[in-house]
Amino acid sequence: MSKIAVCPGSFDPVTLGHLDIIKRGASVFEKVYVCVLNNSSKQPLFSVEERLELLREVTQDLPNVEVDSFKGLLIDYAASKNAKVVLRGLRAVSDFEYEMQITAMNRKLNEDIETLFMMTNSQYSFLSSSIVKEAAKYKGNISDLVPAAVDRELKKKFTEL
């Protein structure tokens, strides 16, 4: 069995909760592709290129992690990378219903690729990119919720707006 996983998300921006899942995934799998997707139902603050750059910066100490982006079906991307696992983080039971639907559809499209759910560290169970952006917009202290590079870039973004 392949020991390659794909960890997808919008990462707008990457939080310490995301980084927790990425690091733990990197300790389990030989290779983890962290894939930025552009969620058409969300209005992103950061461009895909900015998110890729931030993710590369905060994962540079993880030699088996590669940051990438894709358009199209996640399951097709995973197959193109010979990944047999899609790694998803769960914060709470409320995440599970949505994730279950996506997993069922992915399984229908390609039954050779499994989805593995990893519970986030309890200290990040409330954390989402949306909450971080809202707090940063109003100059709240988010330094213990995001990597330093993200904190810096959020401050820049909200100064520019």
UniProtKB/TrEMBL annotation:
InterPro entries: Cyt_trans-like, PPAT, Rossmann-like_a/b/a_fold. This is Phosphopantetheine adenylyltransferase. Residues 6-134 form the Cytidyltransferase-like domain. Its main location: cytoplasm. Belongs to the bacterial CoaD family. It catalyses: (R)-4'-phosphopantetheine + ATP + H(+) = 3'-dephospho-CoA + diphosphate. It holds the Pfam family CTP_transf_like. Pathway: Cofactor biosynthesis; coenzyme A biosynthesis; CoA from (R)-pantothenate: step 4/5. ATP binds at residues 10-11, 18, 89-91, 99, 124-130. It comes from Bacillus mesophilus. Homohexamer. Reversibly transfers an adenylyl group from ATP to 4'-phosphopantetheine, yielding dephospho-CoA (dPCoA) and pyrophosphate. GO terms for molecular function: ATP binding; pantetheine-phosphate adenylyltransferase activity. Its cofactor is Mg(2+). CDD domains: PPAT. Keywords: ATP-binding, Coenzyme A biosynthesis, Cytoplasm, Magnesium, Nucleotide-binding, Nucleotidyltransferase, Transferase. GO terms for cellular component: cytoplasm. It comes from the Bacteria. GO terms for biological process: coenzyme A biosynthetic process. It is found in: Cytoplasm. The record marks 18 as: Transition state stabilizer. Substrate binds at residues 10, 42, 74, 88. Its EC number is 2.7.7.3.
